[in-house]
Write a structure and sequence with these properties.
about 180 residues; alpha+beta; Alpha-Beta Plaits; 2 domains; four-stranded antiparallel sheet; 8 strands; about 30% helix; about 35% strand
């Protein structure tokens, strides 16, 4: 068995997950991971599935495209390359960075540029912008993995300085602390 990654995009409507999962089942695929979300009115789903060696990514793409056409959905399929994990790198620590503030172009770019420069990986990002200057209507939540070798003080200082320059409130917490505080 080999693995493929499948992306599905289109206007949201009931039954998308059911349609995709049925097609994959009919093609003898096993879904291993799914991440889906709705952004405004658009559906976005990513599936990782195991497929038989005799089913090519192109053939699976053709099946998905043909059967999802009535739902006006777009599909993309590619083989998932399995890479060996780098065991020389120490386990990263999970953190949550949140920003609140007025909406403006470049907020995500400015924050993620600093995160990347420090070798930090963004594992999940949720950004909700409702526009205007009400800081409670514009929120970004970055889930990140910070390697143990990262100079956290330097990272935090840069993030706080950039947030202040952009008029953002910023919070940086270990994921365990964030989850404990937000369970109340």
């Amino acid at each position: 068995m080999k693995k493929v990654i499948i992306s599905i995009l289109g206007q949201d409507k009931p039954g998308i997950i059911a349609a995709v999962s049925k097609i994959l089942f009919e093609q003898n695929c096993n879904i291993e991971n799914v991440s889906q979300t709705i952004l405004q009115t658009e559906f976005s789903g990513i599936f990782i599935a195991t497929v038989s060696e005799d089913l090519s990514a192109n053939d699976l793409h053709e099946h998905l495209t043909k059967q999802l056409r009535p739902l006006s959905l777009q599909a993309y399929v590619k083989n998932l390359e399995q890479k060996e994990l780098n065991t020389n790198s120490p386990d990263p620590e999970p953190f949550i960075i949140t920003t609140k503030g007025p909406d403006r172009k470049g907020l995500v770019a400015n924050i993620t540029e600093i995160i990347a420069r420090h070798g930090v990986n963004v594992t999940n990002l949720q950004a909700v912008f409702k526009g205007g200057d009400d800081p409670n209507k514009n929120l970004m939540i970055y889930e990140v993995d910070i390697p143990k070798y990262t100079d956290q003080e330097s990272l935090y200082t840069e993030l706080r300085e950039k947030a202040a320059a952009l008029g953002l409130d910023i919070s940086i917490q270990h994921r365990n602390i964030f989850e404990a505080i937000n369970q109340i």
